[in-house]
Specification:
Radius of gyration: 50 Å
Oligomer: single chain
Strand content: 5-15%
Number of helices: 12
Strand order of the largest sheet: 5-4-9-6
Largest sheet: 4 strands, mixed
Shape: extended
Number of strands: 9
Order of helices and strands: HHHEEHHEHHHHHEHEHEEEE
Length: 349
C-alpha cells in the first residue's frame, strides 16, 4: 500500500512535474527572449534619435468615437500635444514700463513757451500756438510729437524767423502784416498751414490782384513754358555774342482772324463761316522766337505784355519791349497775317 501510495504520489508528482515540464518550455524561454529584446530595445533607444511625430488635427465634426484599442493612443497623442506646444509669451507690460511709454506719447508743456526759430527768439503762450487746431504749430505742441531744443532749453523750429513775428501777431489778435510783407508772410503761412491767415492775406493787395491776374493767365496754359523759353534764348544769345543784352522777336496776338482790328468790321464773318479745310489755310507760325495767343478775354495784348515784363522783373531780369511791325505773311487771296511782333531787349548786367 505504501508502495502504491508512494507510487501514487510519485505518479501525481510525475504528472504535476510532467505538466510543469510541458508548460515550462512554452512560457519560460519566450519570457526570457522577450525580456532580452526589451532590454536591447531600451539600450538602442538611448543611442538612437527620437523619431519624428506628425500630428494631424481634425475638426470636431469629423472625429468618430474611438474604440477601446485606440483610446490609449489618443491619450498618448494628447499628452504629446500638451508637452510639444510652446509656452505662450506674456506680453503684458509692467506698470513702470507702461507709465514710461504713456509719458512719451503725450508731453506736457508749460504755459509760457520759449521758441528759437532759425536763431531768432520768441516767447508766447501755449494757447496762442494752439489757437487753430488744423495748423502745424498746434500739431507740434499737442504733445504727440518730439520737438528738439537748443542748448538753453528753447523749442527749436528750423525756419527763418524774419516773419514769424507776423505769424504770432495774427494768432494773438488777428493782426495782418504791412502790404510790403504780405507775400513773404503768405509763404510762411503756407508752411505752417494756417488757413485763416491764408484766407485773410488773399483778400488784400497785392494777393487779390495776383488772383485776378492768374485767372487771366490760366487762359494761356503755355505761359510759363514760353517765359522759360524767353530766358533760355536770351541767355544763349548773350553768351554766344559775349554781349550785355540780347534781343528776341515775340508775337503777341489776341485774335485768330488774319486781319488788323481796323479791318475787322469789313471781314466780320471770317471767323464763324470758315470751314475746316479753309481754317488750315490760315494756320501758320510767324517767324519769331516765341508766340503768345490767341485768347478770349477782356484783357488785351498790352496786358499780356505787362505780365511778361513784370514776371521777368520778379526773377531779377530787366526787359524792355517795343512793337516793330506785323507779320505780313500772305495766307490766301488777299488775306495776310497782320499779327503784331514785338522786340524784347533782355539786359543781363
Amino acid at each position: 500500500m505504501q508502495q502504491n501510495g508512494s507510487s501514487g504520489s510519485n505518479g501525481s508528482n510525475g504528472r504535476d512535474g510532467g505538466s510543469r515540464d510541458r508548460q515550462s518550455p512554452s512560457f519560460s524561454p519566450l519570457s526570457a527572449a522577450a525580456t532580452t529584446r526589451v532590454r536591447r530595445f531600451i539600450q538602442e533607444r538611448r543611442t538612437l534619435p527620437l523619431p519624428r511625430v506628425m500630428v494631424v488635427f481634425s475638426s470636431a465634426g469629423d472625429t468618430e468615437k474611438p474604440s477601446d484599442a485606440m483610446s490609449s493612443a489618443d491619450s498618448t497623442e494628447d499628452d504629446f500635444r500638451k508637452t510639444a506646444a510652446p509656452p505662450t509669451p506674456n506680453l503684458a507690460l509692467s506698470k513702470p514700463l507702461r507709465s514710461a511709454l504713456n509719458s512719451q506719447e503725450v508731453e506736457e508743456f508749460p504755459e509760457v513757451i520759449s521758441l528759437n526759430v532759425g536763431g531768432t527768439y520768441f516767447t508766447t503762450r501755449l494757447s496762442t500756438l494752439r489757437r487753430y487746431e488744423d495748423t502745424m504749430l498746434a500739431a507740434m505742441f499737442s504733445g504727440r510729437h518730439y520737438i528738439p531744443r537748443d542748448s538753453e532749453g528753447r523749442y527749436f523750429i528750423d525756419r527763418d524767423g524774419a516773419y514769424f513775428g507776423d505769424i504770432l501777431n495774427f494768432l494773438r489778435e488777428g493782426e495782418l502784416p504791412h502790404r510790403d510783407r504780405v507775400r513773404a508772410v503768405h509763404r510762411e503761412a503756407q508752411y505752417y498751414s494756417i488757413g485763416p491767415l491764408l484766407d485773410s492775406l488773399e483778400d488784400i493787395q497785392p494777393l487779390t490782384g495776383e488772383k485776378v491776374r492768374q485767372a487771366f493767365l490760366d487762359l494761356l496754359p503755355y505761359y510759363k513754358d514760353n517765359l522759360e523759353r524767353i530766358v533760355e534764348i536770351a541767355k544763349l544769345r548773350a553768351m554766344q555774342k559775349k554781349a550785355r543784352f540780347a534781343k528776341l522777336k515775340i508775337c503777341v496776338y489776341k485774335e485768330e482772324m488774319p486781319i488788323t482790328p481796323y479791318e475787322r468790321p469789313l471781314f466780320n464773318s471770317l471767323r464763324f463761316e470758315r470751314s475746316d479745310s479753309e481754317a488750315k489755310l490760315f494756320e501758320h507760325h510767324c517767324e519769331v522766337d516765341v508766340s503768345f495767343g490767341p485768347w478770349e478775354a477782356v484783357a488785351d495784348v498790352y496786358d499780356l505784355l505787362h505780365c511778361i515784363v513784370s514776371d521777368l522783373a520778379e526773377r531779377g531780369i530787366a526787359a524792355e519791349q517795343q512793337c516793330i511791325g506785323v507779320c505780313d505773311k500772305h495766307l490766301i487771296n488777299h488775306y495776310y497775317c497782320k499779327r503784331p511782333i514785338y522786340e524784347f531787349k533782355i539786359t543781363w548786367w
